[in-house]
Amino acid sequence: MITVQTLVVQVKCFQEIINIGYAVYRIHGLPWFRSLSWYFLITSNYFFYGENLVDYFGVAINRTDFLRGLVTYHRFISFCLYCGGFVWFVLSLVKKYYMKQFSLFAWTHVALLIVVTQSYLIIKNIFEGLIWFIVPVSMIICNDIMAYVFGFFFGKTPLIKLSPKKTWEGFIGGGFSTVVFGVMISYVMCQHPYFVCPIEYSETLGRMTMECEPSALFRPTDYSLPSWLSGVLGVFGVSTTISLYPFVLHSLSLSVFSSVIGPFGGFFASGFKRAFKIKDFGDVIPGHGGIMDRFDCQFLMATFVNVYISSFIQTDSPQKLLSQVLYLKPEQQLQLFHMLKESLENRNILELNN
């Protein structure tokens, strides 16, 4: 359900950006611009969502011959679809509109990069566990609200010219509040397997499941306090160790990014709107502009979360590796089996399990 909602938001954001491009160049008779833009959106989604299907449904898809062929040649099919759009664009060029058509072609691709690519990363984060989606999204919302509150009551020092109403007091107050909020919500969510388990396909159940034994990242771990603090606490008989969920410590990195770098997604959007002399990206939300006005920081945050997971957290799961193995030729699968068996025997792991 969240994946569908993400797709709906993506389409609306893309539509708002494309509509701005169309309005900026004011050429209502421009051949095929809207059709080409939507074609490239569909092609991009076919590529990215297909990649997700391969990663998370590979074992199930492998059983269906028709789908197996689509997966095997997925990237080639995606490239052919893109080439079709490229040829379509070249054939649609009109002499008096060359510059504007190429400008809008670039506009479409930038929109795809900003919206489609980053929404794809949001979905990848969701499949790693709902906590990787809910916590970052909540941090951005918290930072936005608390920055406004602190700025409203204490703001005096302007922060950036792009947004005259933003103040240093709001920026700092919002950042501090986001760190505290991030620790609290992370601590609560780590206690519920529903939020921390990755979304995977179960062969036994024949469907996607969110049931698992939480990894070490979401189990309480004892940490020793710094020596200088341990000495002070030891005098009063207070324990020198503290039990924390490791994810809570990782949430500090997420909250710092959402409060320090995240707002620059909003500043970027403000600069974009000022460049084209528009107040909002759209009017879908009364009093708040368009969908893009509300999600400008979320896309940047999603990219950071995905990079953070791949850099510091993620290891390939057995299910993902199995889905890749199943696409090997039978002789290659046998070769891999014997190599793995030999390795396990040499390390006495296979004997222990037997």
UniProtKB/TrEMBL annotation:
Keywords: Lipid biosynthesis, Lipid metabolism, Membrane, Nucleotidyltransferase, Phospholipid biosynthesis, Phospholipid metabolism, Transferase, Transmembrane, Transmembrane helix. It is an enzyme of class 2 (transferase). GO terms for molecular function: phosphatidate cytidylyltransferase activity. GO terms for biological process: CDP-diacylglycerol biosynthetic process. It is a multi-pass membrane protein. GO terms for cellular component: endoplasmic reticulum membrane. Its main location: membrane. Its EC number is 2.7.7.41. It comes from Tenebrio molitor (Yellow mealworm beetle). The keyword Lipid biosynthesis applies. Belongs to the CDS family. Pathway: Lipid metabolism; Phospholipid metabolism; CDP-diacylglycerol biosynthesis; CDP-diacylglycerol from sn-glycerol 3-phosphate: step 3/3. InterPro entries: PC_trans, PC_Trfase_euk. PANTHER family: PHOSPHATIDATE CYTIDYLYLTRANSFERASE, PHOSPHATIDATE CYTIDYLYLTRANSFERASE, PHOTORECEPTOR-SPECIFIC. The keyword Lyase does not apply. It catalyses: a 1,2-diacyl-sn-glycero-3-phosphate + CTP + H(+) = a CDP-1,2-diacyl-sn-glycerol + diphosphate. It holds the Pfam family CTP_transf_1. This is Phosphatidate cytidylyltransferase. It is found in: Membrane. The chain crosses the membrane at residues 76-98, 104-123, 130-150, 170-190, 228-248, 254-272.
